[in-house]
Automatic annotation (TrEMBL):
GO molecular function, one term: hydrolase activity
Tagged with keyword Membrane: no
InterPro entries: FAH, Fumarylacetoacetase-like_C, Fumarylacetoacetase_C_sf
Pfam family, one: FAA_hydrolase
Keyword Ribosomal protein (UniProt): no
Protein name: Fumarylacetoacetate hydrolase family protein
Lineage: Bacteria, Pseudomonadati, Bacteroidota, Cytophagia, Cytophagales
Span of domain Fumarylacetoacetase-like C-terminal: 75-277
Family the entry assigns: Belongs to the FAH family.
Keywords, sorted A to Z: Hydrolase, Metal-binding
Gene source species: Algoriphagus pacificus
Length: 286
């Protein structure tokens, strides 16, 4: 099953992509893909509802905006330096325990929405990442059981402002949280659609040039380890997003570094999780 949300930002409607690739409106299910949906066995209930109603569903309107496939979660938790080569290009040690930082949920946006270059930004960067969506409340989870707590997976661009992140003092969150810094999707694929999340090619192009190209097999800490680790320190709620880290090829790692300018086009993808595309523009409120 692939979940989508479509429509005007802040007023998205729920939908799915069926086996034939049709984008279908699930508004009649009368639930959004949010914390309450996942918490109350929503995926199984939706599957049963589709058995009875799939043939009667309408296609979504042409040219509909595609939003984040999950409604704003309670938190977006990110993992830093989780690919060895990315740690090296960043001039940092490969971590011995997961590096955790948060991304403000207000940064969430659709996969084809623009990237806003923030006011006073000099180093807006890109990061293709595999995101994990939590399916049920997770606290003190063991890695042996971690897969039971996963709803599915998404493509995520962990957009980052390196000057804010590294030279403005404090925690990384301030360089990760500007509006539209978390394009998620185009869809959520349930865990049964992705039998091995640790063997997925992930890539990113800047203005047509491939600059990130790796595989999730290179993760320093695999997904069960991350869920076990995080759930020792915080309760993961249904719908929460864990972004598992980016491979080498970010702008910070170039010599000299290269960063986004207005008009730059970022395209990214992960095997089985689709492709997204964002155009960088100056924040219209700056």
């Amino acid at each position: 099953m692939k979940l989508i949300r479509f429509g005007e930002a802040g007023k998205e409607k729920p939908g799915i992509i069926d086996a034939a690739g049709n984008y279908l409106d699930c508004s009649a299910f009368q639930e959004d893909w949010n914390e309450a949906f996942f918490e109350n066995n929503g995926l199984d209930r939706l599957d049963a509802w589709l058995e009875a109603n799939l043939e009667s569903l309408n296609k979504i309107p042409e040219n509909s905006r595609i939003g984040s496939p999950v409604a704003r979660p309670s938190k977006i938790v990110c993992i830093g330096l989780n690919y060895r080569k990315h740690a090296i290009e960043s001039g940092m040690a490969v971590p011995e325990i997961p590096i955790i930082f948060m991304k403000a949920t207000s940064s969430l946006c659709g996969p084809f929405d623009p990237i806003y270059i923030p006011k006073n930004s000099v180093a807006t960067d890109w990061e293709v990442e595999l995101a994990v969506v939590i399916g049920k409340r997770a606290k003190y989870v063991s890695k042996e059981n971690a897969i039971d707590y996963i709803a599915g997976y998404c493509l995520h661009n962990d957009v980052s402002e390196r000057d804010f992140q590294l030279r403005h003092g404090g925690q990384w969150v301030k360089g990760k949280s500007a509006d539209n810094f978390a394009p998620l999707g185009p869809f959520l694929a349930t865990k049964f659609e992705i039998p091995d999340p640790h063997n997925l090619r992930l890539w990113l192009k800047l203005n047509g040039e491939t600059i990130q190209d790796s595989n999730t097999s290179d993760l320093v800490f695999d997904i069960p380890t991350l869920i076990e680790h995080l759930s020792q320190y915080m309760t993961l709620l249904p719908g929460d997003v864990i972004s598992t880290g980016t491979p080498a090829g970010v702008g910070l790692g170039f010599d000299p570094p290269k960063y986004l300018s207005e008009g730059d086009v970022v395209e990214l993808g992960i095997d089985g999780l689709g492709v997204s595309r964002q155009v960088a523009i100056n924040d219209p409120e700056a």
